[in-house]
């Protein structure tokens, strides 16, 4: 399609080189946000900011990244892939090196925002290189691998980034990212992509739509990213941001609805099949927050830091790679819904296993559950992308722009919404369990009195006054209650995730059974339409 490189036959050595470069670029783009997310607590201390301020380092990245696909596809179509490459790849290198000179939190936010813009082109570039490495018969598998490579970066980042921080502070982490970006630039210089077809696609209203839609989505991302930290009802700016987001997004959609050649084809995006796709894609991304928020949050509550989580995320990285390989190897364009349903079952099993956590739970006890979820995260990604992409291609190339925007939005918003939903639910449940536990303690109960005395006795060597010892014992008991309440709340979160995953699976299974009884295969019809359009 216009804006994408030609796909001639390549000799085997060149195919291998294309594959290696694609993996390098995909990991480089993925590490951009993964390194910061994995070490947000350390960066908070290094910059001397509060937790709500540190959270902006991840939020601003998503705010600028979420809508860039709207313009990048048309940019490649009109100006060509080569110009796209030589703008975004050097820009990414420059931004990563700019990290090394950041000396304040404010400038760090600016650099992270620019990084979100430039990184949006890296995943596409890596995808194109991987596609070049495979023959025509396996090109769809190349799409699955290309889109999945960048998803390997988050677990990998947690296996080694904390060691870099110990060696050379936060500059060493950014130096690694800059080194990866430089290697990517050199690799692209040594082996370029084939040329692409160019057509005139930009219209003036495209920029008007983007100028309204992008800020609206950015404000929505800011609300989801910060709401549970500053709390939804406590920070006035949350309400103003939501109001502004609704106005801006609505204005952009009204413009697009009445355009002859829209940037966002709302009539197609509003069809039942695409709405169903968006709901499923976002639901899966929300339940996948079991790992990024639930498991990490639970272990953090129990005193586990990044150093103690390295073996766990080593296992998770292997499971993620296995999910990517199995997804590519078993890909069947006629049955793209099957991997999604299997992924939901695996997520539900992993979540229900974790729901039995106690204050004695340690990372090694979560190897199985987190491996299942990590496998599912990569197993579902490629088929989900292909379902929407093939549907878009069956309608025409201009629909691919709309789908790319939809897919990017569902994945980015799904990740933020998952953390916001689960984080809010966890806080509410923690308050409930804490209240219940406190009510169950009675000072007249011999067991409770003995526990208070034992906890206070630990201070016997430093506190002579019995009243002070009892007060310290009460504080220690309160800490234990808080810990137990948090563990119970996280168990509730895992149960909620398992229920959502099972409900989504049941809905998809009912739809699949209905189609089978009717002798209807939606993907077969989509592929047949694409074949007719080619002729």
Structure write-up:
- It is a single chain.
- The chain is mainly α and 535 residues long.
- The protein contains 21 helices and no strands.
- Helix 1 (12-38) packs antiparallel against helix 7 (105-132) and helix 16 packs antiparallel against helix 17 (367-395).
**CATH fold name of the largest domain:** Growth Hormone, Chain: A
CATH class of the largest domain, anyone? Mainly Alpha
The biggest sheet amounts to: none
Helix content: over 70%
Query: Cα distance, first to last residue?
Result: 15 Å
Q: Sum up the overall morphology in one term.
A: globular
Class inferred from helices and paired strands: mainly alpha
> What percent strand?
under 5%
Order of helices and strands: HHHHHHHHHHHHHHHHHHHHH
Low-confidence stretches: none
Count of individual beta strands: 0
For the CA atoms, what is the radius of gyration?
25 Å
Observed structural traits:
mainly alpha; Growth Hormone, Chain: A; 21 helices; 535 residues; globular
Compact description:
The protein has 21 helices and no strands. The chain is mainly α. The chain has 4 domains: 202 residues, Growth Hormone, Chain: A (Up-down Bundle); 57 residues; 202 residues, Growth Hormone, Chain: A, CATH 1.20.1250; 55 residues, no CATH class.
